[in-house]
Amino acid sequence: MNGTSNKNEQILSNSTDSKKPEHSHNHPHSVHPHVHSEESLRKIVNRLSRIEGHIRGIKTMVQQNSPCPDVLLQIAAVRGAVDKVARIVLDEHLTECVARAAKNGNIDVEMQELKAALDRFLP
Fold it and tell me: Which spans in the chain are helix H?
């Protein structure tokens, strides 16, 4: 097995055996632990692992002097895959974290964090 698979398994095995493992962002202003299902974490980690492999493939293409249009096409595919992961993370954040914050009465801080993240994320 390669190092990436081992890292992914380690990340997943470090989560608790419960249906909803907790993980907190290392954000000093975070108002709650971000709790996501093991299935959701696995889906995101798997997608990121595929993207990582794709990036290595592009690096190999460049090292082998592949035609620039081919390299650009693969970069576009990675961009699309990263955008898809971002969409999944955002969707999960809205349906889980923001909804939880609204229920717990701390929606204002949660929305400020989301807006700050989107300001950095969006061009």
Answer: 3-14, 38-63, 68-92, 99-104, 107-121
CA distance 97 to 25: 12
Global pTM reads 0.66
- pLDDT number for residue 78: 98
Q: What is residue 29's three-state secondary structure?
A: coil
Which residue's structure tokens are 């097995």? Answer: 1
Write the CA distances from 19 to 35, 44, 97, 98, integer angstroms.
10, 16, 16, 20
Burial status of residue 36 (CB atoms within 10 A of its CB: 0-12, 13-18, 19 or more): buried
In whole angstroms, give the CA distance from residue 116 to residue 111: 9
Give CA–CA dist 87/44, Å, rounded: 11
Mean pLDDT on 15-44: 60
Mean pLDDT of 74-90: 95
What is the four-CA torsion angle of 38, 40, 42, 44, rounded to 10 degrees? -150
Give the number of other Cβ atoms within 10 Å of residue 123's Cβ. 2
